[in-house]
Amino acid sequence: MVPDISVCGRYTYLATELFWGAVAAVLLRRANALRKAGVTILALYPIAYCWDRYTLAVGVFDIKLRTGIDIAGIPLEEHLFMAVVPGLVIGIHETIFGE
């Protein structure tokens, strides 16, 4: 059985992005990799934006538990997702393998 995470209603997706974003920020700060993550996120963002815009347009995702705020044609939460995922990956990588 999958747990019901919809307790925050339309703010559920935003809450999860903020939670995992905070985890990523802590890991990146601890590993002294905030700048490295920032550069990587900026480099990946245009690709992720185009990919996200396309997949939403063709109906790959139907995001129900979101705020309803769209920025540049995609949900606010998706913009956060495009920063959180690479930030978390780099934070974990640098924590494990950093100097």
From TrEMBL:
Listed A to Z, the keywords are: Carotenoid biosynthesis, Isomerase, Membrane, Transmembrane, Transmembrane helix
Q: Name one GO molecular function term.
A: lycopene beta cyclase activity
Keyword Nucleotide-binding included in the entry's annotation: no
* Pfam families documented for this protein: Lycopene_cyc
Pathway in which the depicted protein is active: Carotenoid biosynthesis
Q: Which domain of life is it from?
A: Archaea
Biological-process GO terms, alphabetical: carotenoid biosynthetic process
The answer on whether this UniProt entry bears the keyword Transmembrane reads yes
Any idea where this protein resides? Membrane
Q: Which GO terms describe its cellular component?
A: membrane
The record's principal subcellular location, in a coarse class, is membrane
Bilayer topology reads:
Multi-pass membrane protein
- Domain Lycopene cyclase residue range list: 11-95
Xref: NCBIfam families: CarR_dom_SF
UniProt-recorded name of the protein? Lycopene cyclase domain-containing protein
| Species the sequence originates in | Haloterrigena salina JCM 13891
